[in-house]
Design brief:
Distance between the termini of chain B: 27 Å
Number of helices of chain B: 21
Oligomer: heterodimer
Order of helices and strands of chain B: HHEEHHHHHHHHHHHHHHHHHHH
Strand content of chain B: under 5%
Helix content of chain A: over 70%
Number of strands of chain B: 2
Number of domains of chain B: 1
Radius of gyration of chain A: 28 Å
Strand content of chain A: under 5%
Helix content of chain B: over 70%
Chain lengths: 641, 488
């Protein structure tokens, strides 16, 4: 097959991970970092070659009758349970996986380069690069998966890499507990995912994406109208699968791990917790979209969860004081846009524009959010703090970072001609097409987005001029500014990519045009929000504080993230631990351990009792031997007669 | 006589050629260059093991006394893998002071026993089988006594010799009953003539004696009593050979005899005998293993209980059983040889063989401890290491037969897996968790030892995950495999 070289994008990172993991300690930091970055560069080139050939070439049968084909470049059998239930490992190239190849490798390469400067002098530098390679491998494996089980395997692998990287500073208690929290919450969600996979494969008898999505009606029908608790089992399966996606993509109420995950190194936040891993849930739903869109109930759940999350996260982001937290909540809110966009998408509404919009936003968001995080990293690097109160007036000290951050803010706010404008416009079109309720809801959230992003921007770069003493902030080194410049350029031009031609739900071309009614309104809202933020935060003043005072209760609630973490604490500690875990622990200690202790004691005394058998005298051996042979004969005779 | 019949046995001829080359090298090379003998043997045998893959023949020879099929071919290749690892592992030991003068014998005797095992695997006539069995057993007595300056070595050899002869006698007594009942020594003939329904009590005794004879090679309880003394007394290289290669060959031969000779008609008879043997073997092997402080004795009893698991593949007596048996043997070879590799490296350096000496080994020799840990995990059957998959497949193969007795048997085997986990983890605990200062200082093991250990470690990690290996075994057993252009 023409695309079989694509397998190299998986092989290079995993080899690099093993190499850096095993002999990395013996290399100098610089060698390890440069080696990892070069390997990533090669991976990026191969991924680009594959993706661009897929999108723009014609020779290998990518397009048949105007429909882009799903090419199974490679598919080897790994485990075979029954004729139909086979676990395979392979590479599937289709519009969304090719697009993800570009997103992941681009951001990963930028983060690799950026980390050369950012992580300079950190203990465990080699380990860091090894984990980055592991993550890139897992994430690429996830997006090219040919079947849902392979996706699940890589899904867990990205979870592990995320765990390892969040807890990179393992001497800090906050980082350790954040990594545990992230792992446990996403694992909990993955339980739903696994159950969903099992139900789905039980009824459809396949794990294969192409089989599932090429005939989604048959997949739904395979359950034969079986229901569970009033809903069809297929709706259950798809909702449970979505639960896994919601965990990974930090959807309300499973979002609580993402803000804490900011304890990891900032480049990691940019790569994993902004651009790639957290959109895995969106990708999952998109992957199975043809099946999902036949289950109206599940689609409604997805839409509602998306909308609630978008608003919730935007509200919290408006009042946070830690710049990475603001970005984290903004990420949650933006991913919720993508999820909602999938939820409202229907094949019959504007040719399924919501699907395309979601993927488009995923692409542009990855670029500008990675940009924002990397800028935040440069700022934190310069002022040695995450708190906004320690910043201010930085535009004089860090001009490049200032421009880059501004570009990122304009992009996420949806101002023409930056990338976010185009993708967000398509999302709003899709939302209004489904129901004005969702459309208006998302427009409001879009306005809030513009407000909190510019609040952040002004608080960092304008506001006041604190005395930095002899720690005058300065521009980051070249390795760190280059990714900023590159991603800024991408954030400016990415909106002009004709996504409608490339990525659609039925893989056919789709003509898009800017709906000025929607786009104009949302631009007006965004500009209004920006002006408001400018008035409030351009210069240091007391108005924001007074406003906070005037609705102190609401403000505090938002600052405390509406007490979601406390709610979790209450449920886990007071209800689950006290009412379920304690009795289980008692049962475990007394009954289970008791049984095993007894087993061990019996074993021990039995082994003491039989030791005489092994006396050491050869005559004894022979007697036992003969007795054994006779015993065998006796057993056989007894059993037969 | 048609000499072209010998072409049916290319593997045996190849092994013979290796043996002759080693023998000639040992006899005619000048004294100075004899230090290269171990390496020479390993290289020649390695070349043979690779060339082996082009030697698949299918058919019978010598009026059906000898049969070569895809599965005998693959079984012999599996033994070759183990043999090669043992050879590489023992390079350093065989060049040590006391061994050096007699190392030629070591290799020649070792190759001879392997030849005997080849015959056991391919024999379809009891005469050839007995020749193979004796060729595989008797030279081992000499090998066990190899350290002639050590008292334990003598004791072990004497015990081995006596019990081997005794079990041979019992075995042949059983055979004579069979001959008396059927008038033939061909597996196929016996099977067809037994169908008539002859003297049942005599036949049952005969089967019991045959099982006891082969059970000795496999060290099944209660025919196992020689095992611990011999494993402890013999040089470690010989012990590792005894524990894996000779067991693998015997297990395969056992299944062939039971299925082909006593077949399905009398399967009721031997099934019950095997149930009893398996339960006894696994349980008593475990019970004894718990109390051992000497690591070689410990591994001896662990290998006894492992033999019990291998027997589950024999009980299944179907294609899946045979495939999982072969897979189990392969996994067992790499896991056990990894453990013995560590034991012999430590013994060669410091002479320490007690588990207590391993306390805190992690701090002085992390790589050795790590290898040992993987070996223990694999032997205990912890996923994702190879041992988990081999146990899994052998259980599945046994359950396939679907009788209630088998379910009970597998349940008992599973419970025993938990018990075995306990003592395997004791070793891991000694190495990693005990905080004592280790009395074994940091040292660098020989290059050859490291190569063997790395090979075993890779095997432990990858054989299970690479499911194609097991699928391949299934294909081999169903004989629908094509190797290097040889049509089936």
């Amino acid at each position: 097959m023409e695309f079989s070289y694509t397998v190299a994008v998986l092989i290079i990172p995993i080899v690099m991970f093993l190499f850096l993991g095993i002999v990395g300690v013996k290399l100098s930091k610089k060698t390890a970092g440069v080696l990892g970055t070069c390997a990533m560069g090669v991976t990026t080139l191969i991924a680009y070659a594959a993706a661009l050939t897929y999108f723009f070439g014609t020779e290998q049968g990518q397009i048949v009758d105007g429909v882009r084909q799903q090419l199974e470049v490679m598919n080897i059998t790994w485990l075979e349970f029954t004729e139909n239930l086979v676990i395979k490992l392979g590479i599937l190239l289709d519009p969304i996986s090719a697009m993800m190849l570009i997103v992941i490798t681009t951001v990963s390469l930028m983060v690799h380069i950026y980390s050369l400067g950012y992580m300079d002098g950190e203990k465990g530098f080699q380990r860091y690069y090894a984990f980055l390679s592991l993550f890139t491998f897992s994430m690429l494996g996830l997006v090219v998966a040919t079947n849902i089980f392979q996706m699940y395997i890589f899904w867990e692998l990205v979870g592990v890499s995320s765990y390892l990287l969040i807890g990179f500073y393992y001497t800090l208690p906050a980082a350790v507990s954040a990594s545990k929290k992230a792992f446990i919450v996403t694992r909990f969600a993955d339980l739903g995912f696994l159950l969903g996979i099992l139900i789905l494969s039980f009824y459809t008898d396949t794990f294969d994406f192409v089989t599932l999505t090429s005939n989604p009606g048959a997949a739904i029908a395979s359950a034969g109208g079986a229901t569970f608790m009033g809903c069809s089992v297929m709706a259950w399966a798809l909702t449970l699968i979505f639960m896994g996606g919601a965990g990974k993509s930090a959807m309300f109420p499973l979002h609580i791990w993402l803000p804490d995950a900011m304890e990891g190194p900032t480049p990691v936040s940019a790569l994993i917790h902004a651009a790639t891993m957290v959109v895995a849930g969106v990708y999952l739903v998109a992957r199975l979209f043809p099946v999902y869109c036949l289950e109206e109930g599940t689609m409604t759940i997805i839409t509602v969860i998306g909308c609630v999350t978008a608003l919730y996260a935007a509200a919290v982001a408006c009042v946070q004081s830690d710049i990475k937290r603001v970005l984290a909540f903004s990420t949650i809110s933006q991913i919720a846009f993508m999820i909602t966009s999938l939820g409202v998408a229907r094949p019959e509404l504007h040719e399924g524009v919501g699907y395309m919009a979601s993927m488009f936003h995923l692409f542009t968001h990855a670029m500008f959010k990675a940009l924002l995080f990397l800028c935040a990293g440069a700022i934190i690097h310069a002022v040695h703090s995450n708190e906004m109160s320690k910043m201010g007036g930085l535009r004089k000290y860090m001009p490049i970072c200032n421009i880059a951050f501004l570009i990122g803010c304009l992009a996420i706010s949806g101002i023409w001609p930056f990338a976010g404008f185009f993708s967000k416009d398509e999302i709003l079109v899709a939302a209004y097409a489904n129901s004005p309720v969702w459309g208006i809801w998302l427009s409001v959230v879009a306005g809030m987005t513009a407000f909190y992003m510019f609040r952040l921007y002004y608080k960092i770069f304008w506001w006041n001029n604190p005395d930095y003493g002899h720690h005058t902030p300065h521009e980051a080194p070249m390795t760190m500014t280059f990714p900023l410049i590159f991603l800024s350029l991408v954030s400016i031009v990415a909106g002009f990519i004709p996504f409608g031609d490339l990525v659609t739900w039925n893989r056919e071309g789709l003509t898009t045009h800017i709906n000025w009614g929607v786009a104009g309104t949302s631009t007006v809202i965004a500009v209004g929000a920006i002006i408001l933020a400018t008035l409030l935060y351009r210069k240091e003043n007391a108005v924001p504080e007074k406003m906070a005072d005037s609705c102190r209760g609401l403000w505090t609630a938002a600052y405390k993230r509406f007490y979601m973490d406390e709610l979790y604490q209450f449920i886990t500690h007071k209800i689950i631990f006290a009412c379920i875990s304690r009795p289980i622990a008692w049962f475990d200690r007394r009954i289970i351990d008791g049984t095993f202790d007894m087993l061990a004691n019996v074993t021990n005394s039995a082994s003491y009792a039989v030791r005489k058998l092994q006396g050491g005298s050869i005559q004894g051996y022979v007697w036992v031997y003969l007795a054994g042979a006779a015993l065998l004969a006796a057993i056989a005779i007894i059993c037969i007669i | 006589m048609d000499y072209s019949q010998f072409l049916m046995m290319p593997q045996e001829l190849g092994l013979l050629a290796v043996f002759l080359l080693v023998f000639l090298f040992d006899t005619f090379m000048p004294k100075k260059s004899l230090g290269a003998l171990p390496v020479f043997t390993s290289v020649i045998f390695g070349a043979f093991a690779i060339a082996n893959y082009f030697m698949l023949m299918r058919g019978t020879a010598f009026s059906g006394m000898f049969e070569s099929t895809a599965s005998t071919f693959v079984m012999k290749s599996i033994l070759n893998v183990g043999m090669l690892i043992v050879l590489v592992q023992s390079i350093k030991w065989s060049n040590s002071e006391f061994v050096a003068v007699r190392r030629g014998e070591f290799y020649e005797l070792l190759l001879t026993t392997l030849f005997g095992m080849y015959l056991m695997i391919s024999a379809r006539h009891f005469l050839l089988f007995v020749i193979g069995l004796e060729t595989a057993s008797l030279p081992l007595a000499a090998l066990v006594a190899f350290n002639k300056n050590r008292y334990e070595s003598h004791e072990a050899a004497a015990k081995y010799m006596f019990t081997a002869i005794f079990s041979s006698a019992i075995f042949m007594l059983g055979l004579s009953f069979v001959y008396g009942l059927t008038g033939s020594m061909y597996f196929a003939d016996i099977a067809s003539r037994l169908v008539g329904g002859s003297n049942t009590a005599l036949l049952i005794t005969a089967i019991a004696f045959v099982i006891a004879g082969v059970g000795f090679k496999l060290s099944l309880v209660p025919f196992h009593l020689w095992t611990a003394d011999v494993y402890q007394g013999a040089p470690t290289a010989v012990t590792s050979y005894l524990s894996v290669i000779s067991k693998g060959a015997a297990a395969y031969a056992f299944l062939v005899i039971l299925v082909q000779v006593f077949g399905t008609v009398y399967s009721v008879v031997w099934e019950w005998m095997l149930y009893a043997l398996i339960i006894l073997t696994i349980t008593l092997g475990n019970l004894f293993a718990i109390r051992q402080r000497n690591i070689k004795r410990f591994l001896a009893f662990s290998s006894i209980s492992q033999a019990g698991y291998i027997m589950l593949g024999v009980v299944a007596a179907n294609e899946l059983g045979l495939a999982s048996l072969m897979f189990y043997v392969l996994v067992y070879i790499v896991s056990n040889l990894a453990a013995f590799g560590v034991v012999s490296a430590i013994e060669n350096f410091s002479g320490k063989v007690s588990i207590d000496d391993y306390n805190g080994l992690y701090k002085t020799n992390p790589y050795l401890s790590f290898t040992m840990m993987l070996a223990m995990f694999s032997l205990a059957g912890i996923p994702p290491f190879a041992g988990f998959f081999s146990k899994f497949f052998i259980f599945v193969g046994a359950l396939e037969t679907g009788s209630v007795a088998i379910y009970v048997l597998v349940l008992i085997a599973l419970i025993n897996t938990i018990v075995s986990l306990f003592y395997y983890l004791l070793v891991v605990k000694a190495m990693f968790i005990r905080q004592d200062d280790c009395i074994i200082p940091t040292f660098r093991s020989a290059c050859s030892e490291r190569i063997a250990m790395i090979a075993c470690t890779l095997g432990i990690i990858f054989i299970g995950i690479a499911s194609c290996i097991y699928t391949f075994m299934v294909d081999v057993v169903n004989d629908n495999v094509m190797m290097f252009g040889l049509l089936k």
